[in-house]
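Why run this: before we spend reagent on co-expression, it is cheaper to look at a predicted model of the complex and decide which construct boundaries make sense. The entries below are exactly what would go into the expression plan.
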Amino acid sequence: MNSFKPLRVGEAPLIKWSLITLAVFLGLLLLLLPLVSIFQQAFVGGWERYIGHLTQPDSLHAIGLTLMVAALTVPINLVFGIMLAWSVTRFEYPGRKLLITLIDIPFAVSPVVAGLLYLLLYGNSGWLGEWLYEHDLQIMFAWPGILLVTIFVTCPFVARELIPLMQQQGASEEEAAVILGASWWQLFRRVTLPNIKWALIYGVILTNARAVGEFGAVAVVSGNIRGETNTLPLHVQLLYEDYQAEAAFASASLLALIALVTLMLKAVVEWRQQRSLSANDNKEQSQL
Amino acid sequence: MIFNNGRLRHKRVLPGFTISLGVSLLFVSLILLLPTTGLIMQTSSMSLSEYWGVITDPRVLASYRVTILSALAASLFNCFFGLLLAWVLVRYEFPGKRILDALVDLPFALPTAVAGITLATLYAENGQIGSVLAELGIKVAYTPLGIVVAMIFTSIPFVVRTVQPVLEELSHDEEEAGMTLGASDRAVFWRIILPSLWPALMVGTALSFTRSLGEFGAVIFIAGNMPYISEITSLMIFVRLQEFDFAGASAIASVVLMTSLLLLLLINLWQARYLRRIHGR
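The model came back. C-alpha cells follow.
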C-alpha cells in the first residue's frame, strides 16, 4: 500500500488543508467580495430604482457610445491581429522580432500616457491636430478620439493569443493545402481558421472586455461632455464623484456583468480547447 | 545560393506575405508609432533645464516615490499570494476549485474604474472591510495603503498565470527522488521545486510591478489623491493636463514611458534567456 502513496511535497493533510484554506479565504476576501459588493450596492434601493438609474438619458447614451466603440474596435483589431500573427509566424524577414516586441507596448504603457500621446498628436496644439482643425475635423473630445485610444489599448490581445499557438502549430498543414491547390480563402476558411478558432474567440473576448472598460486613456481624450462623449466607465466616475453612489454602482454593475460573461466564456473556451486537444490525441493514438 | 533560393521559395509557398506584412506595418506605424511623434515634438521644444525642472519638481518626485513604493509592496504581496494560488490550483483538488480558478482572471476582466469605486466603498471606514480594519486602528481608504490595495487587486493574475503552467509541467522525478531519500517537505520545496519556479515567479512579479506602476483607474478612487502623500505619477500627468500645462504633462509622461519601455525590454530579455535554458536542456 505504502508504495502507491504519491511522493509529493505538501500532501500531508495538515499542510494541504491549511494552504487551501488560506488561498480560498484570501480569494474570497480580495476577489469575490468586491464582485458581490458591486451588485449589492447597485440594488440597495431595489429593482425599480435600479432600472430607473439605467434608463436615465445620460446612462442610455453612455451605454450606446460604449457599445458602438467596442463594436468598431473588435473587428479592426481582429483583422490586424490575424494579419500580424500570419506575417510573423509564417514568414521570415528582418525586423520580425522587433514587430513582435512593438505590439507589447500598449500592455506596458500607462493608459494615461496612451491618452496623452493621442491628445498631443490630434489635439489643437499637435502638428496633425492643427491641420485637422483647419479642415474642421474634430477627433479629440469626440468619439473618433475615444475609438482611436481604445484601438491602441486593445491592439495586442488577439495577436498575443494567436502568435504562440500558430508558432507551435507550424505551417505544414497550410503548405500542403496550397500545394493541393487551395485558394487563399479556402486555405484560411478550411485549414487555418479551424486550428486557431478557440484562441481567436478568446482574443476577441479579451479585446471586447477591455474596449468596454477602458478608463484612463479615454478619460484623457474624451473631454467628459455629458450625454456626448461619456462612455460607461466615465459615466460611473462622474456619478460617483457627484455622490450618487447608487446610480454609479448601477452603471458599474453592467460592466461587472460583462466581466462575468467574459470569465464564463473564457472557462468554456478553455474547456472546448482541451477537449479538442485530447480528441486529437485519441485520434492519433487509435491510428497508431 | 541554390539552397538559399530553394529555402526562400519554400517559405513563400503560402500566400499573403505582402498584404499581411503591409497591413501590420501600416497599423503599427499609425496606431503605435505616429502618436509618439507628438510627445517627442512637445518635449523637444523644452530646454533641458526646463525639462529637468518639471520632472524633479518636489510634488512630482513625491509622486514617483509613492508610485514605486506602492507598486513594490503590491507586487511583493502578489509574489507570495500568486505562488500560493498557483500551487493550490495545480496541486490540490477541493470543492470550488474551478470557481477560484475563474475568479483569478476577474481583475483583467473588470474595468478598472469599477474596481476603483468598489474597493473605495469596501475599504472606507464604514465599508464592509474598512469597518473591521478601523477597529484595529488601520485606515486603508484615502491613504497610501489604499493605493497598495488597489494595485494588489489589479495585478493578481500576473503571477498566478505565469507560474501555473510551469508548475503543471514540472517533472515529478526529482521531487519523488528527494522524498524517497527522506528529505523533508520543506527541503524539497526550497532545493528542488522553488529553483525551477524561480524564473517564472520573477517574470510574473515583474509584470505585476510594471502594471502597478501604470495603474490609474483603480487607484484614483481609493487614494484620496493628496499632493505629496497619496498622489500617483499617472495622476500628476492628468493634473498637469487639466491645468493645460501640456509641456509639463509631456515631460512627466516621457519619464513614465521610458521607464515602462525599459522594464518591458528587461522582462523580454530575461524571459528569452530562461526560455532558452529550459528548451536547451
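Residues 13-42 of chain A form one domain. Chain A touches chain B through 100 residues (CB under 8 Å). Bring this page to Monday's planning discussion.
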